[in-house]
Design a protein that fits this description.
The protein is built from six helices and seven strands. It is α/β, with parallel strands linked by helices. The strands form three sheets. Strands 5-6-7 form a three-stranded parallel beta sheet, sandwiched between helices. It has a two-stranded antiparallel sheet with strand order 1-4. Helix 5 links the parallel strand 6 and strand 7. The longest helix is centred in the C-terminal third of the chain and has 27 residues. It is globular, with a radius of gyration of 18 Å.
Amino acid sequence: SVARYLASRGYALSAAVFSERGVYLSGRPTAGAQGFRRVYSTLARIEYAGSTTGGDEALGRALEEVYTHLPRERTAVFLFTRPTSTARESTMVRWFRVLESRGHVAYLITPVITSYELADLPPWAQKIYRVKLFEATSVDVERVSKLRKLGVRTVAVGPADLPQRIVSIVESLTPRAAPR
């Protein structure tokens, strides 16, 4: 939904998706409907890995690929992932510094874990779920706080608010045309 909206507004778009299976690229940023089609096609090619191993290395490869496709002018780069390990944090900090030293604006968009209705689970299972959810959320909050202190622009957001937050950031970075 974000890509479609931004394409309709004439923004140049590109996507790089990393997973344990590899890095999927849509190519250089392209504006309008063609940019949206490239991003959508890239998202459609992603193979589900079913595992969480190897993601840190894939992140580094994805950021290297993104960097080679960035135009020289200032670009907004959004990384959608959770800071799940110290290695991933280090990779993000290093690459965000590289991007920003070249004049780009980088944001880490990290999803806030959403709690689901547990009415069909027995009470003991509901309690375990809540404890695990609390533990995971606490770790995420600590990692996000650490990244913010290290200068990484980080937005922690739930799925319902994600599109509006991204659009707001992009439009705040874009110079407005003078009124007629």
